[in-house]
Please model this.
Amino acid sequence: MNDPREPTAIFRSGPDECAYLRRRAADHRQLAEKSGEAHARSIHLRLAQLYGDRVRLLDLVLPDQHTAQRY
Model:
């Protein structure tokens, strides 16, 4: 049984997911620049790095999926 308090997953297409992740990475870089606390800055920079890593991984996978769909 599903818990109604549990958030539902949002599924985006590959390009939409990449755009979302890029936007989140940029948001966290901006928050890191504005942060006055070293710990908060470190957290935001790490999150920006993680979002960027996911974008790079998707960029590797998406061309393969597109090629596989043509054949």
